Amino acid sequence: MKELYALSDRQLLEYCRNGNDKAFDVIFQRYFKPLYSLSLKYVRNTEVAEELAMDLMMWVWEKRTTDFCPEGTLKAYLFRAIRNSVISFFRKKTLATEPIELYHEETMQDSRYADHDQISAEIETCLQRKLNELSPQRRKVYEMSREEEMTYPQIAHKLNLSANTVKSHISFSLNHLRKSLHEHLDVTTLLILLSWLIK
């Protein structure tokens, strides 16, 4: 099994499609803990975080022999998926704490809460618009930190900046996004988005 650890995610998925279950074990070991940790950061509950991460990995397991081929990298796909799972969790939690009389059929069909994909799309649209307002360098630093998951020293080395400059860019960008998005998002979506921004 040692040779499997050297394979790329795409190669492991191909092995899974060919019936090699050990390849899935490698994918599980590679991503379960990071997905659990990310989920825990948002939901602040170990049992819920473990359940969300496990459900996602079980979904991948069920798809292992199909033509499952995520766009981009598997890592990026899984991290988007766990964030969608967190959004769905918060949405269900919010609905469960409201008076039942508020949820007539018309309300439940409200487009804002039709499914977590729509909420995610709203967040992505607002976030992208506000990112475009940043200077090119600040946006680059932000994307390298949040999307590429690079550390401050790694970013500083790659862009030939000081670590303090990188930290300053990130702080400015987060402050800009929080203040700007507060004006455009409803409370539930805003809380979810802020949990994304705080890392």
Structure commentary:
By secondary structure, the protein is mainly α. It has two domains: 91 residues, RNA polymerase sigma factor, region 2, helix turn helix motif (Rna Polymerase Sigma Factor, Chain: A, Orthogonal Bundle), CATH 1.10.1740.10; 90 residues, Winged helix-like DNA-binding domain superfamily/Winged helix DNA-binding domain (Arc Repressor Mutant, subunit A, Orthogonal Bundle). Helix content is 72%, strand content 0%. The protein contains ten helices and no strands. The longest helix has 24 residues. The radius of gyration is 19 Å and the shape is globular. About 10% of the residues have low confidence.
Descriptors for this entry?
single chain; 199 residues; mainly alpha; Rna Polymerase Sigma Factor, Chain: A; Arc Repressor Mutant, subunit A; 10 helices
Brief summary of the model shown:
With 199 residues, the chain is mainly alpha-helical. It is built from ten helices and no strands. It has helices at 9-17, 21-43, 46-62, 74-97, 105-108, 116-131, 136-146, 152-159, 163-182, 187-197.
* Percent of residues in helices: over 70%
Strand content: under 5%
Helix vs. strand class: mainly alpha
What's the name of the CATH homologous superfamily of the largest domain?
RNA polymerase sigma factor, region 2, helix turn helix motif
The N- to C-terminal Cα distance equals: 34 Å
Arithmetic mean pLDDT: 76
Largest sheet: none
Unreliable parts: 97-115
The whole-angstrom Rg is: 19 Å
Report the CATH topology name of the largest domain. Answer: Rna Polymerase Sigma Factor, Chain: A
Counted by DSSP, the helix tally is 10
**Order of H and E elements:** HHHHHHHHHH
Strand segment tally: 0
Keywords: Sigma factor, Transcription, Transcription regulation
Family: Belongs to the sigma-70 factor family. ECF subfamily.
GO biological process, one term: DNA-templated transcription initiation
GO molecular function: DNA binding; sigma factor activity
